[in-house]
Amino acid sequence: MEQQWAAAAFLREIHITLAARFCQDSSNWPSMLHHLVPERTHGFLPLEHYAAIGDGRSVALIGADGSIDWWCAPEMDSPPLFNRMHDSDGGRFSITPAEPFEIERRYRQNSNVLETIFITQNGRARVTESLNSGVSGRLPWCELARRIEGLSGSVEFQIRLNPICAQGEVNRADHPNAKIRYIGDLTTTFCHDDRVQVTLDSDELTEVTYVAREGIRTCVALLVADRAPLAIPRLSDIDARIDLSDEEWRRWAAQLTYDGPFATDLIRCALSLKFLLFSETGAIAAAATAGLPERIGGDKNYDYRFAWVRDAAYTIKALLRAGALSEPIAAFGWLVRTIEADGPEPHVVYTLRGNEVPDETVIAVPGYLGSSPVRRGNRAKQQIQLSCYGDFLETASLFADMGHVLDPAASKLLARLADQVVERWKLKDSGIWELEDEQHYTFSKIGCWLALDRAVMLADDGHIEKHQREIWSKEREIIRDWIDENCWSDSKQAYTFYAGTDRLDASLLLATRFGFGRNDRLRMTRQAIEYELAVGPLVYRYSGAAQEEGAFVACSCWLVEAYAFLGEVDRAEEMLGELLKPLGNNFGILNEQIDPSTGAGLGNMPQGLSHLALLHAIFSIQENRT
Predict the structure, then answer these.
(1) 80 within 8 A of 70, measured Cβ to Cβ
(2) Contacting residues for 21 by C-beta, under 8 A, at least 6 apart
(3) Which of 81, 124, 137, 241 is the most exposed place for a label (fewest CB within 10 A)?
(4) What gap in Å lies between CA 557 and CA 500, rounded to an integer?
(5) Are strands 21-22 and 33-36 parallel, antiparallel or unpaired?
(6) Distances in Å between the alpha carbon of 29 and those of 4, 254, 421, 486, 536?
(7) How many whole angstroms separate alpha carbon 329 and alpha carbon 337?
(8) Is the peptide bond before 30 cis (omega within 30 degrees of 0)?
């Protein structure tokens, strides 16, 4: 693997040298990225050249060439209004110079408001972009605002608004108060002033030009309402809400209390993770996109715009540790209510409103760089994933340890789930990686051990009833002995993927954080995983995954954690610095995976599991150094 990583690192250095010049900054992610915009390959940008904006309800992805190629409105799991990431001829909202250009790009400090400076032979102009919020939080409508400012000379922009009809039929209407485009149940309008010259305006396409000149600025915006009246605010108010939204992002970031190594990276990562919090219910989406490939040309193109119990639990823990409060409390409450209402045994994934995830269907689009089929819905809803019990009870334990109060309904639910673990831990399941091959996955058994271990702790501390405490304690030890007897390989000198195999699974690196014990065996397992599954700082999910997909960002972070929790903190800090280099190309918007040979992003984005795993890796260094 080392030779492969050396080649990959060399390619990566070429890519960075040609594509990016980092400004001086204390963060491993640059405050400003200056580069030539890559040409689209068959109409598609590299995934690592997208940034994101969001409003607590939806997320838009903006390419380095000024094209918004993905936006599902009014909510993350709605059909897309813009889908150019699936179809090179698909819907988009682009603001692009009419002549060749370079860009400088950044998020405002401690904010998710995006700024891009377009540099042409004739001038420089800045585009500032936001999905706006108001003084009371989320607006009753979606407000995608894009401010254009001339900085020097002149820059002619071509603006193209081309929503698609995934929501339903598209029709135009000249309302007395605005030009309206109806898209299914959505009412939309394109806002601009008279300085913008409209060259084409049809049912499905609006094209305009605007020449940005030094010292002059304008704003264009797309407003969307769903089966509701559509407000038509003054353009100046829309423009002002860009700065108001910036202030709200900064206010949120200021509450984070972490003060250790990689603090600037942690704040940027937390801001990216916040894109995925669905404010209306408290649910946390796994990612903001659907159907982006884990391997170019492959068929692992899944819909992640749903709330997994595992990812939600990990995110709650990460945000609590970072010092955020309202979002993890809301998310924990959503988890309790959703699982309690779901029947005797919880599902592993829900919609953002706590309902059953729709059946998986195929969308008739070409897919990113021809990667098909593109799926909507998710079949994981039908699976058993026993490790989710541990995820939820560990989150509850951290919640209580930090001084918060479990209400009676939550306490009863936790005890009921612990009882279920006693009855169900011997079942085969699909494991953390949601595989069709049901096995006695080692990580699932460790998750069951974790659930009962935390149930005992919660009972001992008086947070849940003790009626089954001794049963939980006894069964916890039985599970641990079963793992040692059935899931250890003498030939590999490691815990294995599942009982009866010598294959390895990088998720077992998490056992060090869980306090599973057996540190001698966990250290040997870490060594075997690093030898077999790692390419430099990047780690594949399990044996054989390199033939199917890229390296998994979360697993790469878990390797850092395993070093920190097993006492090698200096090595963990060194590894995290190495890992942040391939993660830092787009200053904080992480994909699910990375191709180690090129550094290219793969999979859906922003990927919650990647961000939360990076947060936990940073915490592990601080916690284990003291």
Answers:
(1) yes
(2) 34, 35
(3) 137
(4) 27
(5) antiparallel
(6) 25, 19, 42, 43, 19
(7) 12
(8) no
Euclidean distance between the first and final Cα of the chain, in Å?
A: 34
Q: Residue for token digits 């400088």?
A: 104
Residues 6+ apart with CB under 8 A from 407: 336
Query: Three-state SS string across 10-30, please?
Result: HHHHHHHHHHCEECCCCCCCC
pLDDT value at position 38?
Answer: 85
Contact between residue 221 and residue 235 where contact means Cβ atoms under 8 Å apart: yes
Backbone φ/ψ region at 491: left (φ over 0), alpha (ψ -120 to 50), beta = alpha
Inter-residue contact 604 to 287 (CB < 8 Å): yes
Give dist(CA 277, CA 30) in Å, integer: 25
* Gap between the Cα atoms of 204 and 163, Å rounded: 6
Q: What pLDDT, in 10s, does the model give residues 421-438?
A: 999 999 999 999 999 999
CA angle 274, 279, 285 (to 5 degrees): 55
Q: What is the mean pLDDT of residues 297-307?
A: 96
- Gap between the Cα atoms of 76 and 38, Å rounded: 27
Whole-angstrom Cα distance, residue 81 to residue 74?
9
Residue-wise pLDDT for 519-533, tens only, equals 999 999 999 999 999
Give backbone dihedrals phi and psi of 244, rounded to 5 degrees, phi first.
Answer: -65, -45
Which residue type sits at 431?
A: G
Backbone angles phi, psi at 140, to 5 degrees: -70, -15
Contact 306, 376 (CB under 8 A): no
Bridge-based pairing state of the strands 178-183 and 114-119: unpaired
According to the model, what pLDDT value does residue 25 have?
40
Looking at every residue in the chain, the average pLDDT score rounds to 92
Asked if residue 327 has pLDDT above 90, the reply is yes
Most confident of 157-166, 254-263, 520-529: 520-529
Nearest to 487 by CA among 531, 447, 547: 447
Three-state secondary-structure class, residue 139: coil
**What counts of helices (H) and strands (E) characterise the chain?**
14, 28
What does the alpha-carbon distance between residue 525 and residue 575 come to, in Å, rounded to a whole number?
18
Closest CA to 472 of 496, 448, 500: 448
Predicted pLDDT of residue 254: 96
Q: What are the pLDDT digits (tens) for 18-43?
A: 233 233 344 666 666 666 788 899 99
Strand partners, 225: 187
Contact, 427 vs 438, CB < 8 A?
no
